[in-house]
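Support request from a user on the community tier.

User writes: "When I paste my structure tokens into the form, the page sometimes reloads and wipes my input. The last time it worked, I copied everything first. Here is what I submitted, just in case something in the input itself triggers the reload:"
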């Protein structure tokens, strides 16, 4: 019959010339590279969202490590810092935010509340302030992330500022 020529990189992948360990290592490296690329894309998207919301942080750095995001930089005030943490943390797939943001003008920290099924801003205001009619304070404290006081969802974390 004779010698037949084929395109080396086409056809079924059966791993000729590679051990199972080498193939596994290649697949692991490919998966890691894909994950890293996805993280970089997500970091860029989060930075864009933060910027679009008007939250200014000098030298904003985000580093996604699995379900955790490390966020660093310098915010002008505590409110901006807390809102950035909430923007990052209220993203599907993010379980923890490691807050390393410095604050230029120190002020008291707000409390935080994770929304539960059945919660409303009025109910949360009653719990924290003793007055359900103070719900606009919570709504304003969570702008621009909240666009409507009736659109909160279970699992969402909200800033509860101190009343002066």
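"...and here is what came back when it finally went through:"
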């Amino acid at each position: 019959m004779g010698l037949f020529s084929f395109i080396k990189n086409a056809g079924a992948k059966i791993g000729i010339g590679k051990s199972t360990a080498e193939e596994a290592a290649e697949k692991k490296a490919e998966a890691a590279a894909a994950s890293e690329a996805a993280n970089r894309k997500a970091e860029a998207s989060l930075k864009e969202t933060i910027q679009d919301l008007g939250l200014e942080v000098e030298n904003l750095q985000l580093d996604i490590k699995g379900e955790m995001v490390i966020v660093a930089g310098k915010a002008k005030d505590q409110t901006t810092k807390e809102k950035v943490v909430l923007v990052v943390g209220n993203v599907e797939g993010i379980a923890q935010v490691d807050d390393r943001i410095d604050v230029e003008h120190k002020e008291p920290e707000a409390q935080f509340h994770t929304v539960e099924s059945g919660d409303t801003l009025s109910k949360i205001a009653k719990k924290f302030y003793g007055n359900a009619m103070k719900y606009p304070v919570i709504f304003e404290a969570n702008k621009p992330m909240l666009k409507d006081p009736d659109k909160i969802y279970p699992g969402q974390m909200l800033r509860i500022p101190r009343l002066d």
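Agent notes: The reload is a front-end session timeout and is unrelated to the input. The chain is about 35% helix and 25% strand. Strands lie at 57-65, 68-77, 96-105, 111-114, 157-160. Escalated to web team.
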